Amino acid sequence: MRNENKVVTVSLLVLLMICISSLSGAQNNEDQREVQTILFGTLPVVQSLPLFVASEKGFFDEQGIKVELIPFNSAMEKDVALTAREISGYFGDMMTPMVLNANKIPVRMVATIFDSIGEQRTFAILASANASSKVLKDLAKAGIAGSSNTIIDYITYKILSLNNVSPKNLSLIETKNIPIRFQMLLTSQVPAATLPEPLVTLAEKKGATVVADDTGKRISPTILAFRADFLRKYSAEVRKFVAAVSKASSFINKNPKDARSIMNRSCRIPKPLQQSFSVPVFPVPQVPEHEQVMDVYHWLKQKKVINKNMVFKDMVSDEYIP
Q1: Beta bridge mates, 93
Q2: pLDDT, greater one: 186 or 17
Q3: Within 13 Å and on the Cβ side, how many CA atoms surround 29?
Q4: What residues does 213 pair with on adjacent strands?
Q5: How many H-runs (helices) and E-runs (strands) does the chain carry?
Q6: What sign results for the dihedral spanned by CA atoms 220, 48, 105, 24?
Q7: Which residue among 36, 87, 107, 201 has its CA within the 20 to 30 Å range from the CA of 165?
């Protein structure tokens, strides 16, 4: 069943990409606007906060560029939009650029803007309130709800490995929809689940127990990526874009109270946490690290999500950090 899910998921994504990219009527928004506006895809998650701050505080304007943040509700919607050339670039995890490149859609990561550094937690494996055991090894065998061949799957694999639990013993309960996964955990329909923040904190408040997480592990970086053709044409604009995001990261770190309202509004912080959930600390944007990139790449190859042989420079451009 798990192999069937993998084939269906990957095949569906690739099919959507191919179909949309082949539409003869598709128009390139950048050509029409002559890149007067950079169209950048976002997701309503806390890791994307610097993008929203840069927009609301006028940091893109200070750089002399116009940026329109295009919100998406799911990573797949965002990936399809990029494939259709409806956006110039997007925010997300390291996995998607690799899958796109492997399917002959050239995309490059240009900067890492967040990671689980210091005391920050991004993902966790939680046990339900009625789980028969709250030992990680036992929960892996009993079943952890997650989503195969996604960043959740990778993070679960890494957390298990770093806690000396063989991922081979994992019984994955396929639950792609995160809100449904959250509710299944709270109602003890599953023994455990892997969730992102701030749902981890909310689940704790409602009775779930964090058994293991990625705090300080640096296994969950999020990145800025652009289409390769856009980078070739508009390299100066991309450098200014990254510079504005860098200023926004510094602003958040120095002014977390001022950033909170933007975070609550744009990153969909649950109401019970809007005054208590910590505003994250953001590192200065940097070139994605070779070790992190290649670890994700080798995992994808091992899972046979991608088959193409690639090297670091096929996935990362190191020319855009200010």
Answers
A1: 222
A2: 186
A3: 17
A4: 124
A5: 15, 10
A6: positive
A7: 201
Residue keyed to tokens 């296994």:
219
Q: Average of pLDDT values for 96-102?
A: 94
Q: How far is CA 39 from the centre of its chain?
A: 18
Residue 321 vs residues 110, 168, 281: alpha-carbon distances, Å: 8, 39, 19
Structure token digits, residue 219:
């296994």
pLDDT tens sequence across 162-180: 999 999 989 999 999 999 9
Beta bridge partners of 126: 193, 210
- Whether omega before 198 lies within 30 degrees of 0, making that bond cis, reads yes
> CA–CA separation, 98 vs 88, rounded Å?
17
Helices (H), 206-267: 228-233, 235-254, 256-266
Report DSSP state, residue 256.
H
User: Does the pLDDT value for residue 203 go beyond 70?
Assistant: yes
Half-sphere exposure of 250 (CA within 13 A, CB side): 9
